Amino acid sequence: GYLKNPLSHPSSQFSGPKPSTTGEVPLQLFLPTLPNSASINHRPPFPAKHSVTVRRPFPLSHGTTTLGFIFQGGVIAAADTRASAGGLVACPAVHKVTPIHSHLVVTSSGSGADCMLWERILTREIRLYQLRHKRRLSIRGTAKLLSFMLHPFKGTDVCVALTLCGWDKEVIYVCSDGARLQGDVISVGSGSPYAYGVLDIGLRGSLSKDEAISLAREAVFRATHRDAYSGNSVDLFHITKENLFFHRLYHSKSFFKFTTCWYLFVSLHSLPNFFCTYTSLH
Q1: Identified catalytic residue from 21, 22, 53, 64
Q2: CA distance 90 to 83
Q3: Which reaction does it catalyse (predicted)?
């Protein structure tokens, strides 16, 4: 089931549960109900002792390599495409970079099911906010909203780590305990130490578009050589003021095969009912 939970926030980007004097409709949130809890606001700090625990068939080992950084030509978001279940490569072609709307993508790490659920919840809430207020929520406001929604699940088995990369030229990391961090470069996952090693050497604000794409590709690619839970291909998004550009880079033992896909979206002030054009270059 879902629990209707009005959001009250002092920021001007959020509307409280009370009627607004300007006629704006208050923002309503619909969050998944916590187990054995009648209300999000009255849940115990830790799961109840009498709660039923279901044993997993095997321990979950989370591993991935995702990154996002800012440069003069926009924002780059990249990730590998390997989904692992313990020591098993469950899927070699998973999308870990997800477009939320025409100027925002989210990189995901953690539990695959949890990440997909919360990406869908976030997409819905942003769309509802835009329909109610006739304007799109900013990247920073989106991160605050996601942090607020995730915080009640602190201490549970929810495992979500999302990095928001958007045209406000902001890269913000939000995890399942509600923590929110902002920076010019953020890498998350078991392969992130190796990716940081490449990014720290080559990242600078004056990079051209081709140099930034090459650097992000190299950072993820090198991480896949050292991290057992990262691998296969590299998904990369370039976010600009006008468009999202998507690149999937396939690699084998000794070479890359480049496939570039352009997703052309409507302008910044339009609703996100967009049309997509797909072009493939080999």
Answers
A1: 64
A2: 5
A3: Cleavage of peptide bonds with very broad specificity
The answer to whether the CB of 216 falls within 8 A of the CB of 67 is yes
Six-digit token pair at 66?
A: 């995702």
For residue 275, the cross-strand partners are none
Q: Could you give the CA distance from residue 82 to residue 52 in angstroms, rounded to a whole number?
A: 32
What are the phi and psi torsion angles at 82 (to 5°)? -95, 130
The angle that helices 209-226 and 192-202 make with each other, rounded to 10 degrees, is 150
Binned average pLDDT, 10 residues per bin, the chain of 282 residues: 39 41 47 52 48 60 89 95 86 93 92 93 94 93 95 90 93 94 95 95 92 95 92 92 78 39 35 33 29
Which of 228, 191, 230, 280 has its CA nearest to residue 94? 230
CA–CA gap between residue 191 and residue 270 (Å, rounded)? 37
Q: Is 64 a catalytic residue?
A: yes
Domains in the chain, ordered, with CATH?
A: 66-263 (3.60.20.10)
pLDDT at 277 (0 to 100) = 30
Listed as own residue / partner, the contacts of 110-113 with beta carbons closer than 8 Å and 24 or more positions apart are 110/62, 110/159, 110/160, 110/161, 110/175, 110/176, 111/60, 111/62, 111/158, 111/159, 111/160, 112/83
Question: Using an 8 Å Cβ cutoff, are 97 and 249 in contact?
Answer: no
